[in-house]
Amino acid sequence: MAMRILSPLAFAAALAAVSPAFAADDLAAGAAAVRDRALTDSTAWDVAESLTSEVGARMVGSPAMERARDWGVAKLKELGFENIKVEAFTTPAWSRGAESAEVVGPWPHKLSILGLGGSSSTPAGGITAPIVVFKTYQAMLDQPPGALKGKIAVVTQSMGRTQDGSSYGAVGVQRRAGAPEAAKRGAVGYLIRSISTDDTRLPHTGGGAPGGIPAAALSTPDAELLERLAARGKPVMVKLDMQSAANPGAAAWNISGEIRGKEKPDEVIVIGGHLDSWDPGTGAIDDAAGIAITTAAAKLAAQPGKPKRTIRVVMWGSEEQGGSSGAYLAAHRDEVGKIVVAGESDGGAGRIWSVSLPKAGADHAAMVAFKSALPKLKVAVSRAAPAEGGADISGIISAGAPFVDFNQDMNRYFDLHHSADDTLDKIDPAELAQNVAVWAAFLYTVANSDVDFRTAAPKP
Questions:
Q1: Label partner for 294 (CA 20 to 30 A): which of 150, 178, 362, 445?
Q2: Annotated active-site positions, please?
């Protein structure tokens, strides 16, 4: 068979035609290696253990949040990150004081409560008032102005257990917006069944819109107790005593560190979790886990050698009470066009069961390589584009940054979320490592390729 001699131009064209396949093979092999290292690496567990043990609960505006800031800087330095920044901002913050609630008639009972963020204090000595129980939030909204005058409104609607946590968005409105609505109807206090899926006497807190009245979450058994007492037909009197404080300009910080890209350092992958927490537990699943997952994944993704693009890990400083997303956008608006992709881990430490990737770039060789690493981890690739990336990256998303959703199993998450049970022992090390493996494989393939999530690329 005669040998055909290719011209230099034809040879270059042929090489270009096959090089994506070689690049995809190399990326797939690298992603598999990073994935496998992550499954046996202890960095994420060590980070989560360190944060929850050495700092613990981290409310914005508290001394603990200052310790968390210093911890974050030290931990990023310890792990070898570069260009570490502490970006200060101010945000409104709420703090908890003494709280108690009890049924004083017709049958006395102590109640387990936690004040909702933004709650007003009661007068000194508390308030005592009759309750009105609503089994759904809508039933309370259906009441006309003045209908609840002088009463404590109690909403006992429960939250269902779902793998994707979707019921939180639907039922959570009674926590987020209920106090002002109750106040509009004349209520002097507002109690809700905890936005949770547990059956313990540990109530779950969380942010609520200030309504000018005391507002708290009841443990689920206590919410059911009030339902039963009210059903007996006699007036049920509850004494509520709550003290709290508000700081309109609390100090907060977004902390970041980078693994600088060796070829395209200005092209940045932004990932992270939020450093702050509520106060009942130690903020383990919410969100020491997210900090640990993304920090460990970035470190592992760079272990084969410095990536081509920069990987930036951000510890956002005020997610629970708000402010960090807007502050981050304000500080980084000029670089949004250089953000390759953004992602946030804020769903605890349950296994990732599916990933959602931007439509643009989904068929690029890098994403083919990433997807090839997922079957071993029992992760599916969703056909749907990402719906929302997380509260702390919502600002840069609104400004045009592409983003991903890595969907964690949340069947147990709302048993623990915002409660005293949010502690390190609830994190399963193997499930934590699986999260790191998914993130690390993704970071490796994106940071070492030219995948563009803003513009569709031809299939390899």
A1: 362
A2: 319
Cβ–Cβ under 8 Å, residues 21 and 460: yes
Judge whether residue 13 has pLDDT over 80: no
How much is the average pLDDT of 280-290?
98
Which residue is listed with tokens 């039963």? 228
Return left, alpha or beta for 348; rule: phi > 0 is left, psi -120 to 50 is alpha, else beta: left
Tell me which residue has tokens 């304000």. Answer: 330
Same domain, 163 and 265: no
Tokens representing 63 are 């001394």
Q: Is 169 exposed, middle or buried (0-12, 13-18, 19+ CB in 10 A)?
A: exposed
The domain in which residue 168 lies consists of 107-235
Residues 83 and 111 in one domain: no
Classify residue 9: in a domain, yes or no. no
SS3 content of the chain, % helix, strand, coil (to 5): 40, 25, 40
Burial of residue 266 (number of CB atoms within 10 Å: 0-12, 13-18, 19+)? exposed
Burial of 217 (0-12, 13-18, 19+ CB in 10 A): buried
The overall average pLDDT reported for the chain is: 93
Q: Kindly state the tokens that stand for 154.
A: 């109690």
106, two tokens: 């017709």
Same domain, 82 and 127: no
Domain match, 299 and 363 both = yes
Asked whether residue 369 falls in the same domain as residue 220, the answer is no
pLDDT tens digits for range 212-221: 999 999 999 9
Question: Cα(125)–Cα(440) distance, rounded to whole angstroms?
Answer: 54
